[in-house]
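Supplementary Note 3. Input sequence used for the single-chain structure prediction.
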Amino acid sequence: MLLLILLFTLTYLAIYYYFKQRFCYWTRRSVPNLEPSIPFGNISPPWKNIPPAVQYVNFYKEFKARRQKHGGVYLFGKPMYIPVDAELVRNILVKDFQYFSGRGIHFNSERQQCLDNLFFLDGPRWKTLRQKLTPTFTSGKMKMMFNTMLDCTGPLLKKMNEMADSNEVIDIKDMLAKFTTDVIGSCAFGIECNSFETADSDFRKYGKSVFEENAFKALKMMLAFNYENLAKKLRITILDKDVENFFVKISTETYNYRVRNNIKRKDFMQILIELKEVEKSLTMKELISQVFGFFVAGFDTSAATLTFCLLELACNYDIQDKLREEIFDVLYEYNGEITYEALHEMKYMDQVINETLRKYPVVSMILRKCTQDYQVPFSNSVIEKGTFTIISAMGLHRDPEYFPNPEKFDPDRFSDANLSKIRTGSYLPFGDGPRICIGMRFGMMQVKICLITLLKNFEFSLNSQTKMPPELDFGFITTAKGGVWLNCQKLNKDLLQ
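The predicted structure, written as discrete structure tokens, is reproduced below.
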């Protein structure tokens, strides 16, 4: 018994000593830091159920309240660097990108070829692949896919009409996610997903599985994120095998069928096929991983943006009416037809979407890994190679210094007259610098097409089931806890009158 007590005591002291040593890291480097606690550091214990996005916003606010331009926190014993000053953020993402070019997430590329894509890759392989794929997201390529995307509004409109006729309350996130699933399935694979007809199509099921959170998945992500060497030894994978198998199978079958039968279609898969078959600049593994990355990037992100946009429009009738009037005015000039050119004339729509992304950035935190020692410009502090940096996009977007009255939904912040007032480095809905979201144009086009389709046919109002103000849920993508529930009513206005 005495031996057990002694063993327990020694173990406790060893753990205590380890954490005390680790928790001196930022102090030794003259970086302002928050007081950590053993063993979680500055992260709240799991039982408090606070989403990471909220925690990092709180870190941002705490350093800001202390008038610090940067700070350090601890995730368990791992030091995390938090830039607060917008100019420093801009330096990290753009000017000094060479010091912070990596994301540093271990994903076991040998066992998970679907993750061998732009989001996870670092170093020379990321740079080479980025150069190959950048031409696939030009405005010309987007225009090529426009009609393919527009065709997906038919099932959405049909379902919305049915629900409006029956006065059903709409779970708008679920509705919009079905639309974006159809869009991505069609544009990435050339496959009709029929999400509105099939209760749980394979694309919807496996797409949801990628973003579903559970304790085991959270543990794997923590290991992959914080303990790369251990994750490698344990052969940790962060994508479920059935999800991996489904996307490898569907990508391979689609590619083989099209090449054998010389089928060409105006979609993302066609662009990748041409890169592989004609330019010989893409391997089959790269093709599969990029299709998967494209699907996942557009699956939940656009649906989340649309959800929060409609939530705010339902709460602000004046903004909803103003946007609808712009839609009517512009489409009138195009005989009521939604065209690629019409989208680019809707300036107020751009403002509404930009303000939605300000208040609810889809990815609330931007992760970078320091690839070489970095001298912080305004201090004597040096960020060591290998240190993770987390930029709270939501913290910046809701900072009253940069966006006065940040809780107010105000599209006029992004008017031509006010754009110059936005501080460089303070607005990061798609990231910034060389790793800015490559699919930004595609996502914006998808959101605009959907908004036009809905607002020219329906008026939206808030249902009492929606919790206000919205509380953020767990997950990589920013979502509202409990969902967003809206009422919708058909409009009688004739667009061409």
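Strands lie at 70-75, 78-83, 170-171, 365-369, 374-375, 382-383, 388-392, 458-462, 485-490. The mean pLDDT is 88.
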